[in-house]
Amino acid sequence: MQITDIRIRKVNSDNKMKAIVSVTFDDEIAIHDIKIIDGNGSPFIAMPSRKMPNGEFRDIAHPINGEMRKRLEEAIFAKYNEFLDQMRLSETSME
């Protein structure tokens, strides 16, 4: 399964959630609402989840193994860093 597209939908620097991401696999299936969270200086991804009646959250889509999680994280963070670079460039050009 190949990651064929990653879209950064929102960046908010005022709180711990920094971006919302959509990832497409094999140009056939997408997972939306993956969050990039600032975890005390080290960002991490949080898969889409649903609040259960007992108050706990359960992922509704997630990688099955560590290798896929690592591939997904690396691809998302690479695209996120590109996105941040583009934002910085556009801010600099406006000055």
Q: In angstroms, what separates the terminal alpha carbons?
A: 43 Å
Which strands sit side by side, in order, in the main sheet? Answer: 1-2-3-4
Which fold name fills CATH's third level, the topology?
Answer: Arylsulfatase, C-terminal domain
Name of the CATH class: Alpha Beta
Q: Give the helix tally.
A: 1
Question: What's the rounded overall pLDDT mean?
Answer: 91
Oligomeric state of the chains in view: single chain
Shape: globular
Uncertain stretches of 5 or more adjacent residues: none
What is the C-alpha radius of gyration, as a whole number of Å? 15 Å
CATH H level: which superfamily? Stage V sporulation protein G
Topology:
Blueprint: E1 3-11, E2 17-25, E3 29-39, E4 42-46, E5 49-51, E6 57-59, H1 66-94
Antiparallel strand pairs: 1-2, 2-3, 3-4, 5-6
Structure notes:
The structure is a single chain. With 95 residues, the protein is α+β, with helices and mostly antiparallel strands. It has one domain: 2-Layer Sandwich (Arylsulfatase, C-terminal domain). It is 31% helix and 42% strand. The chain has one helix and six strands. The protein has one helix spanning 66-94; strands at 3-11, 17-25, 29-39, 42-46, 49-51, 57-59. The strands form two sheets. Strands 1-2-3-4 form a four-stranded antiparallel beta sheet, covered by helices on one side. The chain has a two-stranded antiparallel ribbon with strand order 5-6. A hairpin with a 5-residue loop joins strand 5 (49-51) and strand 6. The longest helix has 29 residues, at 66-94. The chain starts with a strand and ends with a helix. The model has no long low-confidence stretch (mean pLDDT 91).
